[in-house]
Design goal:
5 strands; alpha+beta; 2 helices; 5-stranded antiparallel sheet
């Protein structure tokens, strides 16, 4: 997240928790055996499976406020890979978790 330890985040806590609930449901469905972690560097909820990071960020200065991400160690250029680190998709608090699972599935297929 941008800033330092004294940076005040401008976000609604309820909104962040709502997005995390959707992200946790999607990650648990996508890979039930993976350990979901909350990474302090970017405050993202994520797993790592088969060399690929999958997760949800409540927003850390990247263009999208809440976003899903699929970040393999390397990619073959396609329209899916729309970020310097892999792929992103915006997420709203009312997003259907199954659409998130579909995004993760596509990232898995395209990263193999």
């Amino acid at each position: 997240m941008p800033g330092g330890p004294d940076t005040v985040l401008q976000s609604d806590v309820g909104d962040v928790f709502a997005v995390f609930r959707i992200g946790q449901a999607a990650l648990s469905t996508f890979n039930p055996s993976a350990k979901i972690r909350l990474w302090p560097e970017h405050f993202d909820l994520a797993i790592r499976a088969d060399g690929v990071n999958y997760g949800l960020s409540p927003g850390d200065g990247y263009p999208t406020r809440h976003m899903l991400m699929s970040a393999p160690t390397r990619t073959t250029p396609t329209r899916f890979w729309n970020a310097p680190f892999g792929a992103t998709m915006p997420v709203a608090t009312d997003t259907d978790p199954q659409s998130l699972v579909s995004f993760f599935d596509r990232g898995l297929r395209l990263s193999q």
